[in-house]
Structures are given as structure tokens and as C-alpha cells.
Amino acid sequence: MLYNIDTIGREAIDHLALKHAARERALPKSRTAVRYCANSIRATHRQEFRMAEELMSQAASLLAEMTVDLRDHQDIYYAGFVQDAQKEYAEAITFTALAQHRSLPLPDELSISYAAYLNGLAEAVGELRRYVLDQLRHSNYDDCEIFLRYMDDIYALLISVDFPDAITSGLRRTTDAARGILEKTRGDLTAAISQAHLQQSMIKLQQELQKYDSNRDIR
Length: 219
Hints:
Number of strands: 0
Shape: elongated
Low-confidence stretches: none
CATH architecture of the largest domain: Up-down Bundle
Order of helices and strands: HHHHHHHHH
CATH topology of the largest domain: Methane Monooxygenase Hydroxylase, Chain G, domain 1
Number of domains: 2
CATH class of the largest domain: Mainly Alpha
Mean pLDDT: 89
Helix content: over 70%
Distance between the termini: 122 Å
Strand content: under 5%
């Protein structure tokens, strides 16, 4: 009989119990952080920026806690759920910044990985499309042009990042989706502006015809 088999068993169980406990502490925080970020994005769409900032602050606190919880368990830290929360946080905070025409925060300032940041930024393109469509309904064409430029700038950055998916956490796929969203938004905006110009031309022509008819009546 192996004289130290019982010791190995006890130490293994103790180690795995600690790892399991750390995971059980961190996983609910990841889910809550994702929910805070989703609610922050909705608040930004309603232009409730103070609420959006408060929700993002709460999400940031949970991300920091997860880093502490999993400090001694890096395999769990990189299992995926922490990166998902970081990505959602990056999406929320970059979208809110762009909606207010502010500079983007840097990944190091947010204490998140570059892969999570870039994937979150790519997904923010979809939220910018929704924002553009909201502005279109109010005929805010100048604002739409600005947000479309933001989307174009983001896509230009994303296509410059040419590394394997194992390094970028599948950024290529997210970039392809962003390209489709960008082109669709560009088409929608072009059609809306063309229609608005046509309507303005028709109104102007109608006014000129009315003026011409009035002058004929005077004569």
C-alpha cells in the first residue's frame, strides 16, 4: 500500500474545494455584472446617462472582486465567464462614451484584457446602429452622420487587428458581424437622407408653383 496516498487525497480535496469555492463566489458576480451592463446600455439608449454610469460603476466593482476571488486560480479566471463580463462591460462603457461624444476609455484604465475590450467595442457597433435608427426617427441627420463615422472608425481599427482567434477570443467573427451592421446602417442612412432631400425638393417645387399661380391671378 502506498504510504502517502491518504495525504495526497486530502490535499487534492482541499485544493479543489478552495478552487470550487472561489468559482462559486465569482460566477454569480459575473452574471450580475453582465446584467448591470445590459441595463446600462438600455439607460444610454434612453439618454439616462447618470443611471448608465452608476450601473457601470457597480459592474466595475464586481469585475474587481472577481479578480481578487480568482487571484490564486488563474485557470478559473480564464475559463470564460470573467472575459464575458469584461466584454459586456467594455461594450457598455464604450457605447455610453460614444453616445455622449466622449473619448473612449483605454483597456488599462478599465483593468480588462485587450481581447475583451476589442470584442466589446465591436459589439458596441450594434448598439450604435440602434442609436442611429432612433436619431433617424427624429430626423437628426447630422448626429447620424457622426455616429456612422464612429462605427466606421471602430471597424477600421478592428480589421487592423490580425491575430489568431485563440489570441483575440474570436474577434474576427465579431468584426465580420460589425461590418454587416455598418454597411446596413450606411444604406439605411443614405436612403433616409435621399428621401428627405426629395421631400424638401418637392416642397420647394410646390411652393414655387403656388407662387407662380398667385402671380398669374394678380395679372
